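ARCHIVE CARD
Drawer: 12
Card no.: 0347
Subject: one protein chain, sequence and derived structure
Cross-reference: see card 0346
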Amino acid sequence: MKIFNPWLISLTVALISGCDSEPTAIDKAISAVQKHVVRDFKDPSSVEFRNVKAKEFGNDGDIIVCGELNAKNSYGGYIGFAEFYGHVNKGNFSKVLAVNENTSSSYKIPWTNNSLCNQF
């Protein structure tokens, strides 16, 4: 019977356990904004995200998250992708800054033309 080298087993276990890394501040911000955005829709489980980006601004822990979302309307059909923006400060969700007026919740702010998101 062949015996495995204990060093090889230890190295394999160390490499596999090293694959689990803590989420970054950016990852946490994206998750927080997405969680808060979906709750305003009639069918939160239908919300799809794409082109989601986030960037830290300044030294105060501000993170802006933007992207596009699509969700089902009251008739069960998808509305089409619309832009969304959210703000996280010091790791805490702050607010959804804007969701394009085609969605069920709309927050009007001056820069909803996606120009901020294109800077990332």
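Annotation on reverse: The chain has one domain: 22-119. The radius of gyration is 20 Å.
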